[in-house]
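Protocol step 4 of 6: structure prediction from sequence.
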Amino acid sequence: IINHGVPERVIKRMVEAHHLFFEQPEEEKAKYKAEGHQKLVVYGTSFAAKNQKVLEWRDFLMFIVAGAIDDETVQCWPQVIRDAGLEYVREVKKVAVNLLSALSESMGIPGILENTMGYERLLLNYYPPCPNPDMTFGVSGHSDVGLITVLLQDDVGGLQVLHNRRWVALQPISNAFVINVADALQVLSNGRFQSIEHRVVPNYHRARISIPLFCAPHNSTVIKPIPEL
């Protein structure tokens, strides 16, 4: 989507913060490593083979945002990302709420979807140049599990979606967001909105970044078709 209302300044600032974090020495990034995903901030790398069952060509930094988004929420975030990340999440969450509101109205049940939102996950992906891109994935094929994902990507490309049993490349558009319908939304909408399988292929020449915001239901939400549907 374009004309989404997120200022270009906010997007640019978030991208710059993304680069600042991943350009740091490994020992600095490793401060945010965790076994499993129990922390509110988790750094992971696919290049630590002992921790990976399936190797993918990427590093990532993930944030869990539950409830109100305030300064206290982000005190555990890396300082190089803190201010830009807080502003970015606030702005992009508005986009997600507006989209869910529009989808609710399209089903004739205003408010039903946006009121199920419980928490968000902000993910910063970094895909280094890959010497053998045909032998691995940045991220292997999958669908998202929440409600919707609002994805920002750079101009490198590599995102593919499965359409009619074929992988189709999704060409980047500057300052646009890619919106993924996720699994919980497919169930809640009784199949009216379909989640889609997608993957990322690495690039031989250039590094790639992406910044998805995953919007998920409350943990107490029962994931089943909305009765009115």
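Step 5 (inspection) to follow. The longest helix spans residues 79-106.
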